[in-house]
Specification:
Helices cover about 40% and strands about 25% of the residues. It is of the alpha/beta class. It has a domain of about 160 residues: Rossmann fold, CATH 3.40.50.150. The protein has a seven-stranded mixed beta sheet with strand order 3-2-1-4-5-7-6, with helices on both faces. Strand 4, helix 7 and strand 5 form a beta-alpha-beta unit. Helix 8 packs across helix 12. Bound molecules: benzoic acid (BEZ). The site of benzoic acid (BEZ) has 8 residues, from loops.
């Protein structure tokens, strides 16, 4: 059996993806990732690892700038989609990277918050980078989707699932700086960016796409999932839906760069 047939490489059980939903409802994720590709500034001929490449939309942008890119993701469905774009995408866990001084840069957009063992991620990144190589990241940061998580937790409790944990890691700048520095990276520079993000497909679709793994992991059967989602949407309406019916997600991004010593 090929690794893709064996199933998810994710060590985070709340991370579960259906490529079609992700590409439709989550198309804003790579679209909003353009600034972090600019920060990466990929050069012709560079060898770059896209850590948590998802469906490969940004991997492709980096490749089109002339770099040779390897994408890695824990979701078989997303890896297949990335491969169908003609990309070198591989199934693997960001907490168990097995590269050895191969890359000029490691890039990651909207993925590291799924990898709960950040020390293991940094350790694998440091090993994967050539001396002087750079680590360029955007991920959910401290306070990310706080309203969504609060409403979802209240709705879960109402439906008989109390005390659930979101299953994601949203660090402050200082927290990731400490982790990166302890892992051997230098020149850490980061910022938190408040980014209320329009959800063209609405909040219910966002929850179905991005919190499916969470609901499955907590044993919420499909017919109850819609009730949990409907109550979450109503709790969020005053905070995240404007007078014209437009929905936003209360995203906060942590964007940072660091590098391996030369
Ligand atoms: C995020 O990119 O911040 C995010 C994505 C899916 C679920 C929760 C947060």
């Amino acid at each position: 059996m090929s690794p893709l047939e064996r199933g998810s490489a994710a060590s985070n059980p709340t991370s579960s993806w259906v490529a079609g939903h992700y590409t439709d409802v989550g198309s804003f994720v790579p679209a909003l990732g353009a600034p972090v590709v600019d920060l990466l500034n990929p050069q012709h001929g560079e060898h770059i690892l896209d850590l948590g490449c998802g469906d490969g939309a940004l991997t492709q942008v980096i490749a089109e700038r002339g770099a040779t890119v390897v994408g890695i993701d824990a979701s078989p469905d997303l890896v297949r989609t990335a491969q169908s774009r003609g990309l070198d995408a591989r199934l693997g866990s960001g907490e168990h990277l097995e590269f050895d001084e191969e890359f000029d840069a490691v890039f990651s957009n909207a993925a590291l918050h799924w990898m709960l063992d950040a020390d293991a991620v940094v350790s694998g990144v440091v090993k994967a980078l050539r001396p002087g190589g750079r680590f360029v990241v955007e991920m959910g940061g401290f306070g990310n989707i706080a309203a969504v998580l609060t409403a979802l937790s209240a709705s879960m409790e109402k439906h008989g699932y109390p005390g659930t944990s979101p299953g994601q890691f949203y660090p402050t700048v200082q927290q990731y700086d400490r982790i990166a520095t302890a892992g051997g990276l230098i020149d850490f520079a980061g910022e938190l960016i408040l980014r209320p993000t329009p959800l063209e497909s609405g909040m219910a679709s966002w929850l179905r796409t991005f919190r499916q793994g969470f609901l499955d992991h907590h044993g919420v059967p499909p017919e109850r999932q819609e009730l949990v989602i409907a109550d979450t949407v109503e709790l969020l309406r005053p905070a995240l839906c404007d007078v014209d019916g437009n929905w936003f997600a209360d995203y906060v991004r942590l964007r940072f760069t660091a590098r391996k010593p030369s």
